[in-house]
């Protein structure tokens, strides 16, 4: 893009005074920052449109969101000609989420579209649920998930309650790209904007309890520490746990109030141990059994449970996903499988999910990274029954009443598993070890490297290029067997030359698999300025009593792989 001319185009009378003043200041005093803000347009990634807030085409503001909303409005009107089009909007705790969601509502209404807008912040899973509950054609949530405080974002959901996928995403983007900012209709029709709250809350809470509650024993003796990490889950999780008869719930009050600065943590990401440090300290103080923390829009959850030494240990997303899925499969098995059930995960998540599917004789489906692809499976296979599934990045979905990762219902499910295990004389952690004995001991490690700005984007591009072009022939002494290139949609056996087609959309992902089952995947994040390397290795665990020694061996192997690949 011609940065200078693009920036100056924002000095016309269409843009507000504050915007023009800020651009003038950048033109005169900070051309480097001006370039960062205008060198490209924000694009839809795996999680919609997400970026730093501020003035510019590469920032989240009323104009970039307004243009996206205008394009979506045009697409909806073309797709549903002659119908009363309805869209539901939610927003999270971030700075400007409430005002930006109002702008989005006003643009939709200016285009003659009926808008249901939550009167206060709500969780992303409730927004996904509300799309179908209110018979809407689309849904929008203003959120930047677990990104830093300076970010905000915009996720679009389709009629099925799932995030937009091909062909809708490409067609909507084409509509957006065909517009100029002056095409945005900001003149709201407030008669078309309706506030919603308790009626949808009640319906969502009831469905969450219905899908996540399995009448576990031992609830009165089960202690939970919960933190919303200043996010939206405070509006849902305490109430859902209460309705499922969990009465020993301690909420971390210092983190209970929604706050876009996330003042008590470095990052509001439950994948980071520091984000749950306050809750874990409280759990040790009161002798709690489990800690649960959620990200700002409540689609991801982090869980800490007591390990074999009685200490609180933060589980990773793969571990939580494995035990949740096993528990759900056991419930289905007890009732009798009908033969159409399936579980799902993503290509960078633990291969242990596939081993469990084989053991239970249910179908296993795998998708690209991004929960929209798992939601799409439910739409694509209407005669199949989705049991549950998730991804390594702390997201899980129970059943299909929500079509995106859902920390609300998943929190309840985790508590059910742990409470029942404790009542049985076991624990969440011990049940996980038993699963390793039964299906194989799989252990994963994620290396995430942040590279910000325009130069960072080039560095990430080069790192992935180097990873692809400088192929390794072995990892920790095990020969590379398969190389899966999702850019070319070809999986190649480097030992025999055999090639297989990858039946998934093209994506910038490369995966090595060695003869001993070690897998190493590399991909850029779709929502953050990061490049990610996912490492998975495995071995046999013959007895639960051998867990500590075998776990230590796998840890050493993972560290060896990281060192060998210079990560």
Automatic annotation (TrEMBL):
Keyword Metal-binding appears in the UniProt entry: yes
Enzyme class: isomerase
Entry's Gene Ontology molecular function annotations: isomerase activity
Origin: domain of life: Bacteria
Cofactors that this protein relies on: Mg(2+)
Annotated EC: 5.4.2.-
Residue ranges occupied by any Alpha-D-phosphohexomutase alpha/beta/alpha domain in the UniProt entry: 43-181, 209-304, 316-436
UniProt entry keywords in alphabetical sequence: Isomerase, Magnesium, Metal-binding, Phosphoprotein
The family this protein is said to belong to: Belongs to the phosphohexose mutase family.
Protein's UniProt name: Phospho-sugar mutase
Organism: Croceitalea marina
